[in-house]
Structures are given as structure tokens and as C-alpha cells.
Design goal:
Blueprint (H helix, E strand, L loop, with lengths): L2 H18 L3 E6 L1 H4 L4 H13 L3 E6 L12 H23 L13 E4 L3 E5 L2 E2 L2 E2 L4 E6 L1 H9 L2 E5 L2 E3 L5 E3 L2 H11 L4 E6 L7 E4 L1 H8 L9 H12 L4 E6 L5 H7 L6 E3 L5 E5 L5 H13 L8 H7 L3 E6 L2 E11 L2 E9 L6 E2 L4 H15 L4 E6 L3 H5 L4 E3 L6 H6 L7 E6 H10 L1
Parallel strand pairs: 1-2, 1-11, 2-8, 3-8, 11-13, 12-14, 12-19, 18-20
Antiparallel strand pairs: 4-7, 5-6, 9-10, 13-14, 15-16, 16-17, 17-18, 20-22, 21-22
Length: 427
């Protein structure tokens, strides 16, 4: 990354730095993460979050914790020993970092204690689960006080029963329970995969549907269930990121596009009518397409005059897509459809271009238009795949026929909205 790219990235990250300060994040690290070769870089990224004022609770796993449902005394003791080694490695990496603060006097303090209570799983299908347990309670008040004291809290995959016996817990379930109990702002889950089925953002209902399918990634299932339970339990956002990718945590949290899969009840990619203040962002979106000859060039003064016809898609208050809609008699023209290159991935089953198209159809129907048409020189296949048909120029409204530019020779694509509405009702 050259100096210009770094400056641009840092400017774009500024709103996220401000928004995350003082927030509580729960991070799940399994034993596989702790054994990965880039653990040192991962710890540095976590330390950076701490330095930026983010309150961190790290739930870590132990080797053998998921090996079997039944946990006898010997297996439990081996897991306790493994958890101790995991904690020791984390402490060693954090201790190796330079002190924080302007004077370099603040060291990062990691704290772990008996902060989780457990209940035995008991007998399931006639089999005594022995020392396998389930989370009963997380000591939220004590954890909150430790976070207020600028400590990073470590939570091992164990809890103590009323009799004082340690019981092995599923680390993912514990992380979800801790995140909901603390009313955390985020649950961040590290995994081996980069993204979940190539989707950058999905709702909990979409995640639940995926978990019910046979092709759900089995190695990640407990972590995906943790994301589902946390986001349904009040945690604003869950994130699945890869420990294989250097800097994935920073790119997921401090860039608009992210690199992993975000799970949230809310749709953070909204489409709304454009405002005059959006013009610079719209120009940034359409200029490359104009330069490539894919869009007719619009000078700024024309864009200012037409701003009432434009609609924009935004993510975290940043414009990432746009389109324009012009009434043409009993039809509506869809023009100037543009999406930022970093935001063309599938989000909860749809691309941003498809969301803009769905919005255009809704607006056209609300205006009583019988059809939606578009002129394109390079996206015919995209529109055909989404229900448009190729037509001749005489299918255009008379006003548009009069202004049709035969030198551009654009393809005419038409979507019959009345027929679509009839099919929807009959379905």
C-alpha cells in the first residue's frame, strides 16, 4: 500500500474508529486459531482495538474440547491443562507488545477468573455426559468492572457448578451467552473460511435457513449457531472472519465493504431518494462508467437539475450505488444504474444492483407505470436474467423515441410491470 492508498484508507476508517470507541466486543478464538502461524499478527490487531478504546472479552477454546460429547474426569483435566497453555500463549504474545499510551506506560493486562457458572448436561439418551456442561450464568457485573479498568478479559471454555466442579463448555455457546448477557455490540468469530458461501452480509433468518441445509459447513456449524443465537438475542452485529487472512479483523471493522460475513437483523444497505449533498459521491460512481462509454456523460449542472430523479444506496452513511428514474408517459426509464466495485458481492441473497432494481420497480409501480425500460450498451445479459426482454425502439414511449441516440445503438430492454404484478398476485 503506497502513501496515497494509506491516507485514503485512514480517512475512510475514521468514522468507524469513532463509532467503535467504548463499545464491547466479544471475540471467539478456538484452539485452531491459537495454533496458527500468524497468531502474533492477530494479537497485534486485537491490541490495536484495545488501544482505540474498544472493550474486549476473548473467549478461547482448548484442544480436544469438541472431540466428544461425553467428558470424563480425565478428558476434562486434559482440557483444563490445554486451556492453561492457550492462555499462556495469548499472555505471552500480548506481553511482547510495546506499552500503549503517549508515554508508553500502559501495558495490556489480561484477566481471567471464575466468571462463568455451569450446569451439568446430565444424562442424554441414556448416556451420562459426566463433566460436559452448559453455561448457567456469566458474571456480567464483574466482567464489566474489569473492562472499565482497561483489562482484556479472558474466558476459558469452563464453568463451575454449584458444587464447585469444573465442567467443560462449548466455547462457541459460551461466547454467544457472554455476548448476549453483556449486551455486547459485536460477536466476532474467527474461522478457517473467508466468507460464508461468498456472502458478505446476511440476516439471522437467512443464516438459520443455511444451518438447516445439508451443505452447511460442518466444521463451522457451532460457530455459526453462536452468531445466530447472539444476533437473535440482542447483539447488534455478528462477524465471521478468517484467521488465515492477515488483517481480516481490521478490514472487516474499519472498511465499508469488509472481508468476512456480517450477520445482523438490520439492513445497513439502504436505498433512499438522493439529496444535493450526494452529488459528489454520485459523480465518483458514474465517472468511470462514463469514461468507459457505458453511461451517457452527465455534467454536474445537469446532475444538479436531475437530482430529484436519483436514488442512492448507502452503507454506514457512505453512498455505494445509485440509479435514476424518469417518468415517460405510462412507462418509467431506469437510467444511470451504478454500483461501487467493492460492493458487488451477494448480501443476504441479492447483489446491490438487484436491490437498486427492486427499488426501481417499487417506485415505478407506485407511480402507476405499466413498464420499466432501460437503454444499455453492455448489460443486456444482466437485465435479461432479471426478467427484462429485448425490444425494438418502437416499443419506447414517443418522447424517448424522439431523443434516442442511434449512434450509441443502445439495446432497448423492457420489464412489463403489470404482468409482473399479476404473476405475483396469482402466486
Amino acid at each position: 500500500m503506497d502513501s496515497a492508498d494509506f491516507a485514503r484508507w485512514f480517512r475512510d476508517a475514521t468514522p468507524y474508529i469513532s463509532a467503535h470507541r467504548g463499545r464491547t466486543f466479544v471475540v471467539l478464538l478456538d484452539a485452531e486459531v491459537v495454533d496458527c502461524p500468524n497468531l502474533g499478527d492477530l494479537v497485534r490487531d486485537l491490541a490495536l482495538l484495545h488501544a482505540l478504546g474498544i472493550r474486549l472479552l476473548i473467549v478461547h477454546d482448548a484442544d480436544g474440547a469438541d472431540a466428544a460429547d461425553v467428558v470424563d474426569a480425565r478428558s476434562r483435566d486434559a482440557m483444563i491443562a490445554s486451556a492453561g497453555l492457550v492462555r499462556s500463549r495469548l499472555e505471552a504474545h500480548f506481553s511482547a507488545l510495546a506499552p500503549l499510551g503517549s508515554g508508553g506506560s500502559e501495558r495490556i493486562v489480561l484477566v481471567g477468573a471464575n466468571l462463568a457458572a455451569a450446569k451439568p448436561r446430565g444424562i442424554e439418551d441414556g448416556v451420562d455426559q459426566q463433566f460436559a456442561g452448559e453455561p448457567r450464568r456469566v458474571a456480567t457485573d464483574e466482567i464489566g468492572r474489569l473492562l472499565d479498568q482497561r483489562c482484556i478479559v479472558l474466558l476459558p471454555p469452563f464453568g463451575y457448578s454449584n458444587a464447585g466442579e469444573p465442567h467443560a463448555l462449548n466455547a462457541a455457546s459460551l461466547a454467544a451467552r457472554a455476548a448476549t448477557a453483556l449486551c455486547a455490540d459485536k460477536l466476532i468469530v474467527y474461522d478457517a473460511i473467508e466468507q460464508l458461501n461468498g456472502i458478505s452480509q446476511m440476516s439471522p433468518s437467512a443464516l438459520a435457513a443455511l444451518l438447516g441445509r445439508n451443505d452447511c459447513p460442518q466444521a463451522s456449524k457451532s460457530r455459526l449457531e453462536a452468531l445466530l443465537h447472539a444476533t437473535r438475542g440482542g447483539v447488534a452485529r455478528g462477524h465471521l472472519i478468517s484467521w488465515r487472512s492477515d488483517g481480516a479483523l481490521l478490514r472487516e471493522l474499519f472498511t465499508a465493504e469488509g472481508v468476512g460475513t456480517q450477520v445482523s437483523e438490520d439492513d445497513y444497505r439502504t436505498v433512499r431518494p438522493a439529496q444535493v449533498s450526494d452529488i459528489p459521491a454520485i459523480l465518483d460512481l458514474i465517472r468511470p462508467l462514463e469514461d468507459a462509454g457505458l453511461l451517457v456523460r452527465r455534467p454536474r449542472n445537469r446532475l444538479e437539475a436531475d437530482i430529484g430523479h436519483f436514488h442512492v444506496a448507502e452503507l454506514d452513511a457512505r453512498v455505494i450505488g445509485c440509479c435514476a428514474l424518469y417518468p415517460q408517459g405510462d412507462a418509467m426509464e431506469l437510467a444511470c444504474l451504478a454500483v461501487h466495485p467493492s460492493h458487488r458481492s451477494v448480501v443476504d441473497g441479492k447483489t446491490l444492483g438487484e436491490r437498486l432494481l427492486a427499488h426501481a420497480r417499487e417506485v415505478a409501480c407506485a407511480h402507476g407505470a405499466q413498464s420499466l425500460f432501460v437503454l444499455t450498451t453492455g448489460a443486456e445479459d444482466w437485465f435479461v436474467a432479471r426478467g427484462f426482454r429485448t425490444a425494438e425502439t418502437d416499443a419506447l414511449p414517443a418522447s424517448k423515441q424522439a431523443s434516442y441516440n442511434f449512434r450509441r445503438n443502445s439495446k432497448v430492454m423492457v420489464d412489463a410491470l403489470t404482468a409482473r404484478a399479476t404473476q405475483t398476485k396469482s402466486g
